[in-house]
Amino acid sequence: MHIGDSATAAGFWISTLLPVAYVPVLVAGIDSVGRLSLFLGLLAVHALALVVGHDYPKSRPQ
């Protein structure tokens, strides 16, 4: 397994599981600059993970 394959797999699984982290942020509410920054940071990491992991071969039907 190459480093690129590992990064693709990690990106795929991070983008799959990261939305779970949105729940506590949204339940607690976005009522401060810190929480807004946290939420926007999560969105940015999620977008990056989607770009990196979009070619994960196990995510496509054979």
Describe this structure in words.
The model has no long low-confidence stretch (mean pLDDT 88). The radius of gyration is 14 Å and the shape is elongated. It is an all-alpha fold. 74% of the residues lie in helices and 0% in strands. It is built from three helices and no strands. The protein has helices at 3-17, 19-28, 33-53. The longest helix is centred in the last third of the chain and has 21 residues, at 33-53. The chain has one domain. Pfam families: DUF8028. InterPro entries: DUF8028. Keywords: Membrane, Transmembrane, Transmembrane helix. The chain crosses the membrane at residues 12-30, 36-53.
List the helices and strands and how they pair.
Elements: H1 3-17, H2 19-28, H3 33-53
Helix pairs in contact: 1-3, 2-3
How many separate structural domains?
1
Low-confidence stretches: none
Whole-angstrom Rg: 14 Å
Q: How many β strands by DSSP?
A: 0
Q: What is the tally of helical segments?
A: 3
Could you spell the SSE succession in H and E letters?
Answer: HHH
Kindly list the characteristics that best describe this protein.
62 residues, mainly alpha, 74% helix
Short synopsis of the structure:
By secondary structure, the protein is mainly alpha-helical. Helix content is 74%, strand content 0%. It has one domain.
